[in-house]
Amino acid sequence: MPNPDFAGRRVLVVGDDYLLGADIADEIMSHNGIVVGPAMTLDAGAEMLRAEKPDVCILNIRVGQEMIYGLADEVRLANIPFVFASGERRDSIPDRFSDIPLHPKPINMIKVAAALIGYQD
Length: 121
What we know:
34% of the residues lie in helices and 21% in strands. By secondary structure, the chain is α/β, with parallel strands linked by helices.
């Protein structure tokens, strides 16, 4: 199985579960990525998006009591590739995000890397 390589890309991670965010951050770094975050709130995620200019994003759909969709709209407007990492069902996600990959937790970084940037051999 190929090894994903984020090749120095800046990856914004937004989600409210600290341990899961730390695990995702470790995985990104172990695959040559630079972690932006993890942002534990939507406001923090929006600030990091604007200030840090990530190359790609991994977004949890439910952050605390809020849904990520407004921030996902901003990410899309900025033309930044992203995936959803969530236990949510595909049919609960608004149709405007039907083209966005949904990865169940725990995250499989090989599949996420393939969805965001393709493999770098």
